[in-house]
Amino acid sequence: MLPYGRQSISEQDIEAVTAVLRGDWLTTGPAVTAFENAVSELTGGHRVVSCTSGTAALHIAYAALGVGPGDEVITTPMTFVATASCAAMLGAKVVFADVEDDTTLIDPTAVEALTTERTKVIAAVDYAGQAADYDALQPLADRVGAKTLADAAHSIGGTAGGRPIGDLADVTTLSFFPTKNLTTGEGGAVVCKDPAIGQRAHEFHFIGLVRDPDRFEITDEGPWHQEVHEYGVNYRLTDISSALGISQLKRLAAFKQRRTEITARYNEAFRDVEGLRTPTQRAGVDPAWHLYPIRVLDGRRREVFEAMRAAGIGVQVNYIPVYWHPVFANQGYRRGLCPNAERFYSEEISLPLFPDLTDADVDRVIETLTKLVG
After folding, report:
1. By CB count within 10 A, which of 122, 150, 289, 300 is most buried?
2. Fold classification of 252-373 (topology level)
3. What does UniProt list as catalytic (predicted)?
């Protein structure tokens, strides 16, 4: 079965990991700091807090932004559930804004209609690898004293308006799952423009530990002392994972180039095929394509999905609208809330897209899908 996504691991990646295993630090060591610094350099020079997953990154980000009961978080339903659930777990009400029909990115006009004085965070998702319209979203957040969050699990390495992912929103979260644009095995990171938010993110992911003597409330202990002012969790990334991440970052540009090449071949092959609709690229955006989401029209998505799988091509669907999940539906969210997102979901199939996909593999995908819809 040809997978729809897969990690690319080189001998240099393996050597980087084994070097850590032979060293003195398995976690909370120099590789973690080096990885965070390297991600910071890629994402605009801001504070980076690495962590154990993209979901952990979202939990950290919302906590660092002070999200809690009584707050509202506006987000898109066209995402993995964690973008919404991590805010809900902290007590916030999640408000879903519909997506643009062409880009599948959160619609700033829809967001504007839903923004109130209770809005704490506007959380966009860089669906499939291209940045949302943060130039339009940021003024909406600023108007009510909210913050913007970019769920950039799909888009590390991309740019918009010449600015890198990580520099477009107040806080950005990243994922390093194996199918993403680079991997640490499992892993993620939070990028914070405001150093104070960055420090809160760091302490939350480090069990809440405060190690700055100037902030101690207990002042008569020795040099070993550390204390907790607010609850935190252990979401620390290991040096083993960080070493893999550092090595992968060196290949990110090549990964992005290959993903762009495959996307261009799919676009060319499917652009004029009746019954298919290719992705739309937003003006001014240089995506780091993570998914190739093609739309199968005329109610044939499931038929085509099952036929592609039967032909040995591992397509996927990304994603069921978040509020369709029972955990949200049981709270009163109803289908029909975001028509564009629901229509997109009814048509979407993600085709194989990863750096080690060969030209022959791409040809096979193109030929199989074209025949199925012909």
Report:
1. 122
2. Aspartate Aminotransferase, domain 1 (3.90.1150)
3. 180
